[in-house]
Design goal:
mainly alpha; 9 helices
C-alpha cells in the first residue's frame, strides 16, 4: 500500500515546480508541448541525434526532468498519488503520450530498452494513472491534428 502523502512530499513537489519555472526549462517545456510533434520513432531520433541543437537540448531536458521526477516516486521518495495529480504531472502525461504510440520502436532504434521506463512505470502503477493516460492519448491526438506543422 502506498504511503500517505507527507509535508516532505509537498515540499518536494514545490521544489520540482520551482525547477520547471527556470527560463530555459520553460522554453524547453513550451517546445515539447506546442512545437514537437513526432509521428514516428524516426522523427524523435532525428532530434535525438542532432547533438548540440537547441531542440536536442530541450528534448533531453524535459524528458530527463520527468524521468528524474518519476524515479523519485519509484524509489519511494515521493507519494505516487500526489505526484500523479494533473496539476503536478499533467505535462508528463503529454510528453509520454506523444511517444507512446511508437515507444517500442523508439527503444529499439535508440538501443535503450529503458527509455521513458520510469515514466511508464509510474503511470501504470495506479488505476488513476492508467485511466489518465487513456484520456491524454486521445487529447494528444486531437492536439496533434490541430497544432502539428502541416496540419493547420
Amino acid at each position: 500500500m502506498p504511503k500517505k502523502a507527507t509535508a516532505g512530499d509537498a515540499q518536494l513537489i514545490m521544489q520540482l515546480y520551482d525547477l520547471r519555472r527556470e527560463a530555459e526549462m520553460r522554453k524547453a517545456r513550451n517546445w515539447w508541448v506546442s512545437s514537437f510533434w513526432p509521428n514516428s520513432a524516426d522523427d524523435f531520433m532525428k532530434v535525438a541525434f542532432t547533438m548540440g541543437s537547441q531542440e536536442n537540448n530541450w528534448l533531453r531536458q524535459v524528458s530527463g526532468y520527468w524521468s528524474m521526477a518519476a524515479s523519485f516516486v519509484l524509489q519511494g521518495a515521493l507519494n505516487v498519488d500526489l505526484f500523479l495529480q494533473p496539476s503536478v504531472s499533467g505535462e508528463m502525461f503529454i510528453v509520454y503520450a506523444k511517444v507512446h504510440p511508437f515507444l517500442k520502436e523508439l527503444r529499439e532504434k535508440a538501443g535503450d530498452p529503458h527509455m521513458f521506463s520510469a515514466i511508464e512505470k509510474v503511470i501504470n502503477s495506479t488505476k488513476f494513472g492508467r485511466e489518465r493516460l487513456k484520456f491524454m492519448l486521445k487529447r494528444v491526438e486531437t492536439m496533434r491534428e490541430r497544432m502539428a506543422p502541416g496540419k493547420n
